[in-house]
């Protein structure tokens, strides 16, 4: 793939509809859905090639079996630093502090595009609000720790604290967003 930037990649894919192959960590994986989200948002026709995890996906990308791949920063960064693959953008809303030279997909021209993986602490249904808030306060302290932030950054991650209400809203929004991608791309999750 000769593209050096995301706009060049998008132009190449549009000039070669249904010829550019993108790899994912498997059917229905987050990396598969991000590829389909980009196809829809940018009006692309990349063909999906599922692999059995991020390792085989990266091996295929390095070998040139596929032209595009979607993978976590921590997974792909060593290959990029070694000159074996080229990172052109991050899928988060804004640039990631661990690779500040990379624009977000939205910043590079696909307005409104973002897709992030997130993790959260969940407690059993019915847990008293006071206990939920105690855990929330404790997690905010952990995520403010320079040691924790440094360790997360080592993996290309960012610690972003939220409230139980914000988490609930994120879950609801993601259910709608990803269900729409699955339906529009005819992703068979069986």
Describe the structure.
With 190 residues, this protein is mainly α. The protein has a domain of 111 residues: Periplasmic binding protein-like II (D-Maltodextrin-Binding Protein, domain 2, 3-Layer(aba) Sandwich). The chain is 46% helix and 5% strand. The protein has seven helices and three strands, in the order αβαβαβαααα. The protein has a three-stranded parallel beta sheet, sandwiched between helices. α2 packs across α7.
- What is CATH's topology name of the domain at 6-116? D-Maltodextrin-Binding Protein, domain 2
**Class of the domain at 6-116, according to the CATH hierarchy?**
Alpha Beta
Strand order of the largest sheet: 2-1-3
Span between termini: 32 Å
Secondary structure: helix percent: 40-55%
The CATH H-level homologous superfamily of the domain at 6-116: Periplasmic binding protein-like II
Strand proportion, as a percent range, falls in: 5-15%
Mean pLDDT: 95
Number of helices: 7
What does the radius of gyration come to?
A: 18 Å
Structural class: mainly alpha
- Give the SSE string: HEHEHEHHHH
Query: How many DSSP-defined strands?
Result: 3
Taking pLDDT < 50 over at least 5 consecutive residues as the criterion, the unreliable ranges are none
Write down the overall geometry: globular
Main sheet attributes: strand count, strand direction, barrel closure: 3 strands, parallel
Under the CATH scheme, the architecture of the domain at 6-116 is 3-Layer(aba) Sandwich
């Amino acid at each position: 793939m000769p593209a050096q930037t995301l706009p060049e990649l998008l132009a190449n894919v549009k000039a070669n509809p249904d010829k550019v192959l993108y790899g994912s960590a498997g059917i229905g994986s987050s990396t598969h859905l991000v590829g389909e989200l980009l196809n829809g948002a940018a009006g692309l026709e990349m063909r999906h090639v599922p692999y059995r995890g991020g390792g085989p996906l990266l091996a295929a990308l390095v070998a040139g079996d596929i032209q595009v791949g979607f993978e976590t920063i921590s997974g792909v960064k060593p290959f990029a630093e070694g000159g074996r693959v080229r990172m052109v953008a991050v899928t988060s809303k804004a640039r990631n502090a661990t690779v500040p030279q990379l624009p977000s997909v939205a910043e590079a021209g696909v307005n409104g595009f973002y897709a992030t993986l997130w993790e959260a602490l969940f407690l059993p249904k019915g847990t008293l609000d006071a206990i939920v808030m105690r855990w929330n306060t404790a997690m905010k302290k952990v995520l403010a720790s320079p040691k924790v932030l440094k360790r997360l950054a080592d993996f290309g991650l960012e610690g972003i604290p939220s409230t139980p209400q914000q988490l609930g809203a994120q879950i609801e929004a993601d259910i709608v967003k990803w269900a729409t991608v699955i339906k529009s791309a005819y992703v068979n999750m069986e």
